[in-house]
Amino acid sequence: MNTRTQHPRKTMRAITQLRYGGTEVLSLAEVETPVTGDDEVLIRLGAVGVSAGDILLMHGEPRMVRLAFGLRRPRQPTIGRDVAGVVAAVGAQVTRFRVGDAVYAESNQGGYAEFAAVQERFVALRPTTVDAVHASAVPVSGTTALQGLRLAGVAPGQHVLVNGASGGVGGFAVQLAKAMGAEVTGVCRAAKADHVRAIGADHVIDHTSEDFTAGGGRYAVIFDLVADHPLGRLRRSLTRHGTLLVAAGKGGKVFGPVGRIIRASTMSLFVSQRLRPLAARRNGGDLAELTRRIDAGEVVPVVDKVFPLERAAEAITRLESGQVRGKVVITV
């Protein structure tokens, strides 16, 4: 493999896990710096966002995920996907980036570390209006929200409901739906209502005191990030040809949300409404679109709290607490 610059050093600090479990399986270790492939960009990380997917991989639950990530122990010992930093080296085939560029990406090699090597097609220039900490809040949550609203075909004047509006994906969904010209209702806890209004929601429903599926509201799109209502009840809150985005689900420890996804897909075949499971994918083009929207002021990444790398376990505990507004971020 040929890179245009040499790696700064052969080893780096990273948070590793050698088995599945709670935060007790995480430890700070010295590991080998990733080798940069010909089509890869080596990023010296400044920050990494903490996401629900990190928690899923840490626990290895639902257990079906272990088929892809390791049956007995994680194949990749470092978690973390939302990365932001500066290009440290580029592979021989990389043409769009050079050393020193401020970038961000969704990594699949583990972002709780000092360096991450990411394929060029999944990397984008960072917004010029935010720092690495706020940029690291964007990749997974921002692209998930963008791809979901695009799948639903959100159009100006439609009424969109976001169930779980105060979290990472939900916060971006509220802002992007508003930027697309929709009227937006956010569902969250009462304590987070001010935050959801501040990011642009026209209406806020406190899920602890009001069931939005029991009222008379009808929505062109429901972006469900919580999965706390049966599919039938959610359908009754849709317009005749509305779209339900199924982006979450609890289920059992083995199969997780698979049952809900199958039910939604099957039901969609027999009704006028669209029930669409959302499987967001890494996409550098979508990140570039988010960069444009952030620099235009349409979207503002919201950071709840920042932790240093050695306190990664506390960052995950913070996300698991359910008290987060926006994203939790780890600085490197």
What does this entry look like structurally?
The longest helix has 14 residues. By secondary structure, this protein is of the alpha/beta class. The strands form 3 sheets. Strands 3, 4, 5, 6, 7, 14 and 15 form a 7-stranded mixed β-sheet that branches. A 6-stranded parallel β-sheet has the order 10-9-8-11-12-13. A two-stranded antiparallel sheet has the order 1-2. The mean pLDDT is 92. Helix 4 packs across helix 5.
Order of helices and strands: EEEHHEEEEHHEHEHEEHEHEHEHE
What level of helicity do the residues show? 25-40%
Spans of at least 5 consecutive residues whose pLDDT stays below 50 are none
Biggest β-sheet strands, sense, barrel: 7 strands, mixed
Structural class computed from helices and strand pairing:
alpha/beta
How many alpha or pi helices?
Answer: 10
Strand percentage lies at 25-35%
Radius of gyration in whole Å, from Cα? Answer: 20 Å
How many β strands by DSSP?
Answer: 15
Query: What is the mean pLDDT?
Result: 92
- What best-fitting shape do the alpha-carbon axes yield? globular
Query: How far do the termini sit from each other?
Result: 27 Å
